[in-house]
Amino acid sequence: MPTPAISVAMSVYNGERFLAPAIESVLSQDFADFEFLILDDGSTDASPAIIRRYAGRDSRIVPIFRQNRGLVASLNALLAMARAPVIARMDADDISRSDRFARQIAFLNENPDYGVVGSWTEDIDRDGAPYPVSTPDHPIDHAAFLEAIEHFAPLICHPVAMYRTEVVRAVGGYHAAFRHCEDYDLWLRLAQVTQIGNLPERLIRYRRYENQVSSRHSTEQQVGAAIAYLAHRERAAGRTDPTARLERLPPVDELDALFGREGVARWVRARVAPSLVYSRAGLRGEGFEMLCRYLGEGGDRTGMWRVVARLLRFGAPVRALRLAAILARSA
């Protein structure tokens, strides 16, 4: 078979609700020279049947079915299977604009020093209605990308990323330790070997809803992102990345030992805890303990009484009382 120009990489796990429109948005691309790798990671819903139905209609689809192994393993499997020199990521709940591939492949062809290109997003809710966001648009060129790293701003929306296959393989693909923030860690590692940017066009309709991974695992995701940033700083300073060979990140309290200096764990708590105060999953889960520890270490108490009220609305009265007691003791 001739080598396609693009390998589209989609991992699916119980994605039946949004899967059909996601697949159709790929099949309707103006740029048609691609293979479409769809890996079903042990779904228990109708996802396998949907994939088989579309694969029977379009020979560009390469269906892969296996037992559940998780997203990072799936992404690395897709990276290994890809035959094209360029990979276009796609998720099972988003919708690509019909000219997405054409616009991104043209950019990579015209800018050989860039290894990754994303785009701005049109954010939608589970029903396809506009979803308001307050975060800035993604950085356009590499200089702005590096600046965004230091300001902890958004870098690239993963499902609209297109990257050169060998560049990503050369840095070891996705690292298992950074589960739920594997893309952020990858962008930081790639930023030190290639240029990265985003097209200032909204080439994907990016779906946001409460049960998506970034909502359900907000604490683990943000802790991992903070550690990935610290690892990035170690590499930038010419030091060894202590996370490079890890299969799983250690508990936050063990980070001082991992990085070989004091204050790392406290920095991570100070970085993550304030960002969890609006997260239902974070406050009802392990993020609450991190917030209490952060406050016990002298963290900023501004607005924390509103968090008490929020915990009551979230149906966590015991935690609300505990937080109120911490705040009262420090008053």
From TrEMBL:
Pfam families (UniProt xref): Glycos_transf_2
Molecular function GO terms recorded: glycosyltransferase activity
Gene3D superfamilies on file: Spore Coat Polysaccharide Biosynthesis Protein SpsA, Chain A (3.90.550.10)
EC number: 2.4.-.-
Top enzyme category: transferase
Record SUPFAM superfamilies: Nucleotide-diphospho-sugar transferases (SSF53448)
UniProt keyword Ribonucleoprotein, yes or no: no
Keywords of the record: Glycosyltransferase, Transferase
Domain Glycosyltransferase 2-like: start-end pairs: 7-170
Top-level division of the source organism's lineage: Bacteria
Assigned protein family: Belongs to the glycosyltransferase 2 family.
Protein name: Glycosyltransferase
